[in-house]
């Protein structure tokens, strides 16, 4: 018991001198509801002894408290912005309404408090929260604005799993950071390239954690802006993966390595029984990454790596020191976890195609999805409430992209026609899509129709997201409006509804074949009012949304041009 008491003391010390200049892993404080008060503010944090580095934090110097939520609870969030500029806070992975989701349209102005509230509908799992302001997400996260969320539920509570937070249930937020000569954070805006040479775990450099000689749970979060981690133990012993982004797996999966892209989470169990007094290290074996993966071995045509770069090397994430087991510690790993029901492909109402590419041909063109760079005023896709959809993601550009969707968790159907491995068989909200690869997933949109506030889908390399590799989609309730699609004769059908429109209208059109499509709105004298879409759309039924609340009442004309044809339809805007 003396050894365990000593280890607990070390866990809660942020920076203690250790052999080989190591520091006890900082364990973020927890916060429980039903009211959660978070304040974003500038601060300083000692990554290095005696040096104050300028940072942002939630309720502290760097990162934020771990929020503990229970499925079924109604919670209220009070988020104060004191960083001196606009930002947002997104509850990454959680199934909440778009107005509570914290995307780029839910801006928190400086000096104000955002107060979303919602019922926790998610399974037991590990989520996280972070800013999502368009063009500023990367910098705000880099400076320290992020935190972990743990959701508990009655099913998980019945399992024999480690769940004593900070003792045998350890949050592990992995980030890489670059520091300048003054040991200040050196953020470089633009592109994917926020890759540092210093690994920071829970805000701790060179961290060590003391765990009992029993079964321990690590909640792994890749909180990096742009680095993939290939995680494994230094002695190549196996561990058991029990959970992915959206919840527990059906049964533990034995692994020697687990690959996490930015935004992904995994819960793993490490059995340290009989290893009292030993030491081992959680590593990133980045030399094993596929060429082109962020943080992996550079491609032949890539610029030379700067001195001290850790790309393509194997490096330590977290040292683990094993102490004696305490009474009541978990000593066995359960064989079964939860029952997952697969969504059959036959239940899908439609297939939606996403192409990760650029907005125009040629080198240096802006990254895009379906040829479109993110525009705050454009709705790229419309989903019907209650539908089950298959999303097909094809990567036609550059290196791997971690594709993330808000609102829902999904099940991966296949990668280039091959079913996913067991560790990807559970619920997910991020999937890493490799160059030239086609990934299909299936999901349900069962709640939260809103004709005004969209959800996002995007690359979770934060530099790519900030540069516009992102799209917006609405979930609408077709039964809420009397829809009659007025068609034109012939194979091409065009309709606008509602028409007259007050705040928004759906522009629905049918394409006989895949085509380049340009949708533009004009006023009565022929002046362009808004470009709604300019890119490639698949054959069949397509929809776009025009938010009409920012134009004066009157008559407007929606014009759709394809590779071969052009159609125009009049639209009335009223108040």
CATH homologous superfamily identity of the largest domain: Cupredoxins -  blue copper proteins
Using the CA coordinates, give the radius of gyration: 25 Å
The biggest beta sheet, please? 7 strands, mixed
Mean pLDDT: 90
How many H/I helices? 5
Number of extended strands: 40
Residue runs with pLDDT of under 50 for 5 or more positions: 1-20, 481-492
Helix content, binned percent = under 10%
Structurally, how many domains make up the residues? 3
What is the overall shape?
globular
How far is the N terminus from the C terminus?
71 Å
Strand arrangement in the largest pleated sheet: 14-13-12-16-21-18-19
Beta fraction:
35-45%
What name does CATH use for the topology of the largest domain? Immunoglobulin-like
State the CATH class of the largest domain: Mainly Beta
CATH architecture of the largest domain: Sandwich
Class by alpha and beta content: mainly beta
């Amino acid at each position: 018991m003396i050894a365990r008491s000593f280890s607990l003391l070390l866990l809660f010390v942020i920076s203690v001198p250790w052999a080989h200049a190591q520091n006890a892993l900082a364990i973020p404080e927890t916060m429980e509801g039903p009211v959660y008060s978070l304040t974003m503010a500038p601060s300083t944090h000692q990554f290095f002894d005696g040096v104050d580095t300028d940072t942002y934090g939630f309720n502290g110097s760097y990162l934020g408290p771990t929020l503990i939520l229970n499925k079924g609870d109604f919670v209220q969030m009070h988020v104060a912005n004191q960083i001196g500029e606009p930002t947002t806070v997104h509850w990454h992975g959680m199934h909440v309404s778009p107005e509570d989701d914290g995307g780029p349209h839910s801006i928190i102005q400086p000096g104000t408090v955002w107060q979303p509230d919602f019922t926790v509908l998610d399974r037991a799992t590990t989520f996280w929260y972070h800013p999502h302001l368009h063009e500023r997400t990367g910098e705000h996260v880099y400076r320290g604005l992020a935190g972990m969320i743990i959701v508990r539920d009655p099913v998980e509570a019945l399992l024999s799993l480690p769940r004593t937070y900070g003792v045998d249930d350890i949050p592990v937020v992995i980030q890489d950071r670059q520091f300048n000569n003054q040991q200040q954070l050196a953020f470089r805006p633009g592109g994917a390239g926020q890759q540092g040479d210093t690994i920071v775990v829970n805000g701790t450099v060179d961290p060590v954690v003391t765990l009992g000689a029993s079964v321990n749970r690590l909640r792994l979060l890749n909180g990096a802006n742009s680095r993939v981690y290939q995680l494994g133990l230094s002695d190549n012993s196996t561990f058991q993966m029990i959970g992915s982004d959206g919840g527990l797996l059906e049964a533990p999966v034995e692994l020697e390595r687990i690959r996490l892209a930015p935004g992904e989470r995994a819960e793993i169990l490490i059995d340290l029984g009989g290893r009292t007094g030993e030491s081992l290290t959680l590593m990133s074996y980045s030399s094993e990454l596929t060429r082109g993966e962020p943080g992996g071995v550079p491609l032949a045509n890539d610029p030379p790596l700067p001195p001290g770069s850790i790309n393509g090397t194997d490096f330590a994430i977290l040292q683990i020191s094993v102490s004696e087991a305490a009474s009541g510690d978990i000593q066995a790993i359960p064989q079964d976890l939860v029952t997952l029901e697969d969504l059959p492909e036959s239940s899908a109402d439609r297939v939606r195609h996403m192409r990760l590419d650029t907005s125009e041909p040629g080198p240096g063109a802006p990254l895009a999805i379906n040829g479109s760079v993110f525009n705050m005023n454009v709705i790229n896709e419309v989903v019907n409430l209650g539908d089950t959809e298959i999303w097909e993601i094809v990567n036609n550009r550059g290196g791997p992209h971690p594709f993330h969707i808000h609102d829902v968790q999904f099940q991966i159907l296949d990668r280039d026609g091959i079913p996913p491995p067991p560790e990807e068989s559970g619920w997910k909200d991020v999937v890493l899509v490799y160059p030239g690869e086609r990934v299909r997933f299936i999901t349900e949109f069962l709640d939260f129709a809103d004709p005004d506030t969209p959800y996002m889908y995007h690359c979770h390399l934060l530099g790519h997201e900030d540069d516009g590799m992102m799209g917006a989609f609405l979930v609408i309730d077709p039964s809420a409006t009397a829809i009659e699609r007025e068609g034109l004769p012939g194979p091409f059908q065009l309709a606008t509804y509602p028409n007259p429109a007050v705040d928004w209208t759906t522009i629905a059109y049918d394409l006989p074949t895949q085509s380049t499509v340009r949708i533009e709105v004009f006023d009565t004298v022929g002046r362009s009012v808004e470009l709604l879409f300019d890119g490639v759309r698949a054959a069949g039924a397509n929809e776009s949304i025009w938010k009409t609340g920012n134009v004066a009442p009157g008559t407007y004309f929606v014009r759709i041009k394809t590779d071969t044809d052009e159609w125009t339809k009049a639209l009335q805007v009223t108040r």
